[in-house]
Amino acid sequence: MSASSSRFSSAALAPNSVIGIVGGGQLGRMSAVAAAKLGFRAHILTQDANGPAAQVAHQVTLGAYDDHQALEAFARAVDVVTFEFENISADALDCLAQYCPVRPSGAILRISQDRLSEKTFLSEADIPLAPWMAVTDHASLHAAADKLGFPFILKTTRNGYDGKGQARVYEASQLEDAFASLAPHPLVAEGMVDFACEISVMVVRGTDGTTRCFAPGLNSHRDGILDVTLAPAPVPEETAERAQALAVAIAEKLDLIGILGVEMFIDSTGNLLVNEIAPRPHNSGHWTMDACPTDQFDMHIRAVAGLPLPPTLRHSDAVMKNLVGPDDMALWPEVLATPGHIPHLYGKAAARVGRKMGHVNILFPYGSLPGALGIQDALGPLAEKPDTENDDA
Ligand code: AMP
After folding, report:
1. Which end of the chain is least crowded, N or C, by CB within 10 Å?
2. Is the pLDDT of residue 191 over 50?
3. Mean pLDDT throughout 372-380?
4. Cβ < 6 A, ligand 1 pocket
5. Average pLDDT for the chain
């Protein structure tokens, strides 16, 4: 249902209204804090009474995301619902939508949850993508290899994140094994992009149709997990503007209310190709928390609550560094002692390998993001370590 045709009012929520957030992780935590800053109360639906979001929320409903009784009780207790992760069912959002507005809508979640529907939607909207094909069986697998050439990438359509659920296929002899190694089918085959870098744009759209975009960030990954975002992405101004225009076009086509992260590849010739969209606050937008007067979480809550969206001013350039797992957490005392490191910790009990525990923002005067060496210097204890594992000396 479109924003304009919703049977719920799109009027701004009054102070002390209740924002329901489905999901109890760090994105919910930071959204709840943003809600509190605007005088709202956050009510979290989660299964984890001690999770990151529950720790800072006004109220918590404990329940499974497919428990219709819990969903109904939750929806009746809030004025609007949003979500902070994508592995809930869109059916659950439809259930919630009987009682209050759900922003972004379940229809948008449905598109973003499935690579095939995402690519179909984006292709129909004339958004540039890497060449792709649906792979449903052996015939379409071989047709994809013919069309895309080697190497290409096979990806699962659902629940693939942080580089999981994909296989690179370099030659015909690997086709069947790659197909069998990924489940469930159907899969998506994607042409290998001659990849220069990955950027992402956070775009927000309000109930009145106003759209706002933050500057693109440049993302780099470690072990398939976002490691560092540089903002603004050091790309030509024209590329940054094109990236923002694509993000706005997607938000408008989706009839978005709330925030959306748009991940894009830049290929070696400067082309932009959209990789994924995520209708929620995004790790690659965390730099806005310290570099912008109104950050991605403030914007998201404003949009969800029907408040006006101010321009996305940026007073500083920024580097965001994730703190992942026990190795990064071992550096926490040093991070705290490093001048200029702005720490954000998510309140997770155990620092398991690969788990996002927090992040650090480092600010630079507007327009003076340093080069690679300067960034490593600023990262201090969090700088990349030279590989000394095999060094017996
Ligand atoms: P994804 O799970 O789609 O976000 O992909 C994870 C990572 O794999 C991306 O950040 C890229 O580094 C790489 N990747 C994914 N798709 C492609 C592609 N079509 N061409 C080149 N690299 C890709």
Report:
1. C
2. yes
3. 97
4. 130, 153, 160, 163, 166, 190, 192-193, 195, 198, 221, 275-276
5. 94
| Ligand 1 atom closest to Cα of residue 165 | 2
- CATH T-level fold of 195-381: D-amino Acid Aminotransferase; Chain A, domain 1 (3.30.470)
Residue 75 CA to ligand 1 center (angstroms) comes to 37
Using the atom order of ligand 1, give the atom closest to the CA of residue 152: 19
Q: What CATH number labels 5-102?
A: 3.40.50.20
Model pLDDT, residue 260:
98
Per domain, the residue ranges of the chain are 5-102, 131-191, 195-381
Closest residue by CA, ligand 1 atom 19: 192
Q: What does the pLDDT look like over 36-57, one tens digit per residue?
A: 999 999 999 999 999 999 999 9
**81 within 8 A of 103, measured Cβ to Cβ:** yes
Q: How far is the CA of 299 from the centre of ligand 1 (A)?
A: 28
Nearest of 79, 77, 102 to residue 91 by alpha carbon: 102
Structure tokens at 32: 């709840």
For ligand 1, atom 7, the nearest C-alpha belongs to: 163
* pLDDT score recorded for residue 327: 97
Question: Taking the CB of residue 11, how many other CB atoms lie within 10 A of it?
Answer: 9
> 131-191 has which fold?
Dna Ligase; domain 1 (3.30.1490)
How far is ligand 1, taken at its centre, from the CA of residue 371, in Å? 25
pLDDT of 385 above 90: no
